Amino acid sequence: MQRMSNDYSDKNPELGHLYPAHVSAVCARHDHALENSGAAHAVIFSGCPKTVFLDDQLYPFKANAHFVSWAPLTGLPLSYIVHTPGETPRLIYYLPHDYWHPVPGQPDGYWTGQFDVRVVHTIDDIAAHLPDDRDKCILIGEIDDESHTFGIERVNPTSAVNILHYARGVKTEYELACMRLASRRGAAGHYAAEGAFRDGRSEFEIHRAYCKAVSHADNELPYSNIVALNAHSAVLHYTDMDREPPSEMHSFLIDAGGQVHGYASDITRTYSYKDARFAELIERMDTAQLDIVSRIRAGADYRDLHVETHRILAAVLIEAGIANGDPDTLLATGVSSAFFPHGLGHLLGVQVHDVGGFMENENGSTIDPPSGHPFLRLTRELEPNMMLTVEPGIYVIDMLLENLRGTQAENHVNWDGVDWLRPFGGVRIEDNVRVTADGCENMTRDAFTALA
Ligand code: GLY
Ligand code: MN
Ligand code: MN
Predict the structure, then answer these.
(1) CA-CA distance, 107 to 165, in Å (whole number)?
(2) Mean pLDDT, to the nearest integer, of 25-38?
(3) Which fold has domain 13-167?
(4) At what angle do helices 173-198 and 13-37 cross, to 10 degrees?
(5) Mind listing the pLDDT tens digit for each residue in 184-233?
(6) How far is Cα 83 from Cα 60, in angstroms, rounded to an integer?
(7) Neighbours of ion ligand 2 (CB under 5 A)
(8) Count of alpha carbons within 13 Å of 132, Cβ hemisphere only?
(9) Any bridge partners for residue 442, and if so which?
(10) Distance from C-alpha of 318 to C-alpha of 413, rounded to nearest angstrom
């Protein structure tokens, strides 16, 4: 893994080497989905750009994740992949004659050899490349305009989609290689962002330093960066960006990733500016996070791990002088939930919150999160080569802490400790890990180490 280059392009020879087996695996899961839905052809639509209401501007294009999991084509609207079992997949590649907007280049890259590529220049030319027997097709994609179905009536049937979503939970070697690169990309951004924070920059400037280091425009980021100074760190999805630095710098929480061919990393780090007590809390959280990561393995129940994380974080709160009692009491009285009000993590892939985290099997049955923990997005048993995040956090969120007033929990909170932590906002540490038979590969820590 340390040999890996930082070539993010579709000329990367390592990715080119792994890609044919990936396409074979994707074909096999589509064969199975077709069989289960009694259809002969799967047609995957990349998507259509959306227009702003009463305007002629387009929102940034986000390709259908199903399409991206076939091919590294994140910017190819109005295109189709046709899969027929036993045949080379067909790619209907839409290359319009358009001088108002940028158009995709000619098909080029390691992926082209796996497709029967048909370049079309008008929408009307697409129909001729779709299977004639439309009644034997299923269409997978977001359809806002009926004309994009070309007469295919079965759109996103659950008999097929459930199988595809369940299968996506386990990554191919190609996908894992893309995600190692995405981790590298994100780690490079995190180093640049930490440097900008140490230089006393504003949230906006730190964000720009991050984007420059990962070479992403805002729309290319896998999700909106969370760049939070001081108390902003307690806003779980803080995406404002103050243009001026705060008058006093206390802390920095950054949750930001990178993407390579549509595959995401999702990384969080927290830093103390100069405060030794807050630095010590970050250290405790780092140790706790690594302890949780060390419990990941195939067969583990992530629901149990999430509940165990509450006990581990309760111990951190006690050691840091923010709560008192014992971890089980803090869990039972709701103290740990007030400080840690989100899930331990989620599946990761072509979507940051990848599909399939609740699925019990490929038929669509689901597994509920544990009672009292509605925000946990990953309830399924862990299998080798699943990619997931591990992201414990503790925050001062007054709206949640106030709910403890007047309950048994109130006496288990050291309110002085809360007052001390409030200006720092909180701490979250998030890594991306690959599940193995007896442990996991921590792609995030590996990436930080490789770039150190
Ligand atoms: N960045 C979103 C998340 O951590 O889930
Ligand atoms: Mn995150
Ligand atoms: Mn996450």
Answers:
(1) 27
(2) 98
(3) Creatine Amidinohydrolase; Chain A, domain 1 (3.40.350)
(4) 120
(5) 999 999 999 999 999 999 999 999 999 999 999 999 999 999 999 999 99
(6) 27
(7) 255, 266, 430
(8) 0
(9) 433
(10) 9
CA distances from 200 to 206, 396, 442 (A): 9, 23, 30
Q: Compute the Cα dihedral for 296, 302, 304, 310 and give only its sign.
A: positive
- Strand 387-390 relative to strand 431-436, pairing: antiparallel
Instruction: Give every CB contact of residue 184 below 8 A, 6+ residues apart in sequence.
Output: 4, 6, 258, 447, 450, 451
The amino acid sitting at 364 is G
Q: Which atom number of ligand 1 is nearest to the Cα of residue 256?
A: 1
Q: Which residues pair with 255 in a beta bridge?
A: 226, 268
- pTM higher than the cut 0.85: yes
Sequence length of the chain is: 452
- Return the structure tokens found at 402: 């106030």
Ligand 1 atom 4 nearest Cα: 266
- Cα 389 to middle of ligand 2, angstroms: 8
* Token couple for 3: 């040999």
Pick the CATH number of 173-451 from 2.40.37.10, 3.30.1070.10, 3.90.230.10, 3.30.70.100: 3.90.230.10
Q: How far is the CA of 38 from the centre of ligand 3 (A)?
A: 37
